[in-house]
# Entry
Amino acid sequence: MKPGVLLTRRIPPAVLRRLEEACAVDRHDADCAIPRHELLARVRGKQALLCLLTDRVDAEVLDAGSDLKIVANIAVGFDNVDVAAARRRGLVVTNTPDVLTEATAEFTWALILAATRRVSEGERLLRRGEWTGWALDFMLGMELRGKQLGIIGLGRIGAAVATRAPAFGMRVAACSLDGAEPPWPAGAVPPPVEMMALQDLLSTSDVVTLHVPLTPSTRRLIDDRALSRMRRSAFLVNTSRGPVVDEAALAAALRERRIAGAALDVYEHEPRVHQGLLGLENVVLAPHLGSATTETRTAMAALAVDNVLAVLSGRPPLTPVGA
# Structure
């Protein structure tokens, strides 16, 4: 008999066919996340769980899935999985690093440009029919050339963002919370980077962009105190995890113009967004699109399936968490 696999969301057909050739796949095909009660019921008897960041895989789920051998998370982050609980049960947990680095770095720059040049604000004004024509002082933004890009978290994605900074004439400052050497993308020319303490980076950067995993130490890393250190002319960008930013504090800082603007792709309580942010013109809000390209999402699903097939056939996983 084929081993049973629970798949909590749709994946590209070509990737699914490869999984179905080797496994008996139980798919949740709805557009929304699998309801908690269904996850607990359908994981029973399965040998593998392919899940997304929207699925909370805790001890209760792992106990229900007592036959599980692997939890394959289709994301680079894995804060939705209780990795310690999985290890105590002898389970493998995998993620999908590397394959989404370039897409997320590209999207980070899209948000930087959208925020600093007021693109979303201008489009909303135009769609409302309020544009009255060109003027010398109309909707002035901030030019990037000569400014400082402050990167918090110089891992794969942070490093990829940094390599693009010279194209915009920006100098790079960075804060590495774990002290590891930056994993520069293959073939890329590493730009000059000035390493700084967090408080110094916040107080000197014109754009601050977040690229840290969600851990107890990074939860609400950007709070009211951190925001108060930033320049009034500065912009905050977050494509990492929503809870890294205190959204209520950010809404207040934006409303009071204590910082110039922000661009967010992730939120504290997705898919809900703090009400205080929704009515503000100086914030760009995107619906978690950082890795949303056809190529990247396909590669993410394929890597997760490769991990499942490896473990279920007795081979080591390709990208185990914490290895």
